[in-house]
Amino acid sequence: MNIIMAKNAGFCFGVRRAVDTVYEQIKKNDGSPIYTYGLIIHNMEVVKDLKEKGVIVLDNEDELRAVTKGTVIIRAHGAAKKIHRILASQNLKVIDATCPYVRRIHQIVEKESRDGKRIIIIGNNGHPEVEGITGWAEGEVFVAESEADAVILAEKIKENACIVSQTTFNYNKLKKLVDIFTEKCYNGTIVNTICNATEERQVETGLIAKEVDVMIVIGDIHSSNTAKLVEISRKECANTYFVQTLKDLPLALPETTTLIGITAGASTPNNIIEEIQKYVRTNF
Questions:
Q1: Please, are residues 206 and 233 in contact by the beta-carbon 8 Å criterion?
Q2: Backbone conformation region of residue 10, classed left if phi is above 0, alpha if psi is from -120 to 50, else beta
Q3: Any idea which residues carry the catalytic annotation?
Q4: Which of 144, 153, 179, 193 is exposed most, by the fewest CB atoms within 10 A?
């Protein structure tokens, strides 16, 4: 059995930075509690390990306000401006592990909305990154997730808009939605804020999926960027398997399989990727 392993798979810069930040604080810890505001990344294997090491996840604003001592680390997805204000008002050690690419979007949204632009975020409604970006707008802000959303918003907002995107949004979908806005809107600003790592992974996944008989995409079920890789892969390869860990691998593959592709989302640890790759090479 031959395997094509994606070169761009596993932790991206922002995820690695956030995870390393938490582990560094665990090493330095003097016994005071360590918290993350939200899941540090969307990978439950990592979150489980951190929990076993004593890290506590704060799920909402009320839980955050109840913290009186310790260290709070802001997740890779970032957080709304009001969360930063709450943290600044408490006697806590605060470490901002927001991905720098996400932080750039916060700065763009804050500036453009302050200048009177209405903000349109192309992204997944309810995703923590999108919620965080929304929280930096000082005026009207809207989210477009589909072409239908874009059509409605483009009719509603025909001028004075700033369009940004979730860093992990599907790059091909982004182009389609942007085209809808550019046809209808004027006097606007469009900033491509999909990060390079996301675009590279999506392009590479599509190319590999075209060649192989079976595609294995590794990542957490809650990971937006992994879900996009699965979506892209399934358009090119019907036999696409979305697995979180080794136990999710199918026991057998289609009999005609001679070439397998493997990729992984940006929040997938290397040890899981290596374990699955080794198993596939040995058993299929």
A1: yes
A2: left
A3: 129
A4: 179
- Residue 276 contacts by C-beta under 8 Å, 6 or more apart in sequence? 216, 218, 243, 245, 246, 249, 262
For residue 194, what are its two tokens? 């999909």
Six-digit token string for 265 = 């989302």
Total-model pTM? 0.94
Walk across the sheet containing 240-243 and list its strands: 2-5, 259-264, 214-218, 240-243
What one-letter code names the amino acid at 77? H
Identity of the residue numbered 177: L
Q: Binning pLDDT at 50, 70 and 90, where does residue 172 land?
A: very high
pLDDT digits (tens, 9 = 90+) for 116-137: 999 999 999 999 999 999 999 9
Per residue in 57-90, pLDDT (tens digit) is: 999 999 999 999 999 999 999 999 999 999 999 9
